[in-house]
Write the structure tokens for this entry.
Amino acid sequence: MNSDSIDRSWRALPALRLPLSGFLEDRGQGADNLLATLVRRINGGNLAYLGVPADLVYRLACLCSRWSPDLQEFIAQVLEKSGNLDHFLTQPAALDHHPEMYGLLEASITAAEFAMNAEHDARSRKPLPSEVSELQQVCSATAFLFDLGKVYTEHAGQDLPRSARRQLTPHADLSRCWRGSWTTLARRNPILAAWLDQVACRRAGATAAVRAARALTHNAVRASWRSTSQLLPV
């Protein structure tokens, strides 16, 4: 993603005006849960034919329970509106990590988990923290969507050279994936939309809180790239 706004027609709030808390609904307050519905479709509905491993479905469901309703709705809309949801759920992440089928989903889930708990080990079956701060939720959601733009690439590339760069950046097509959903979110919750914009892009004038959130997100993504895939080669 470049330094341009996600949507030029809608200006995000500047970093100095962003509060550190109080901009997310408590979990469980949302009337409609689009992301939980999507998980059910993957597990036993019209997306079950993709054969997503049950362990990944379980881990995604656990993440859903830690994200606020606004974040869940945004993530579900981004995934659906990308037009390539099946690719996100099934394609490899890269040639140099998580190269198996479903690898992109696994790496994305792992990054989101690390943003909530840097020592999380999915193999242990230990639950994610029951209390996750609002900024950690934003970082976790951004880490989850960080490489969604890969659904538009025909062939897997390499990510470890990206990791070596001083400034890690999301996949170039991330803004293409979430532009329309972000604009909708900006009308509903402009503070959350601005936080997502600040964390995901290289906008100048970042506050200490924004820099810390970016670092947390980037470290979680890098750690997911270095993690060992639990998927069996197909």
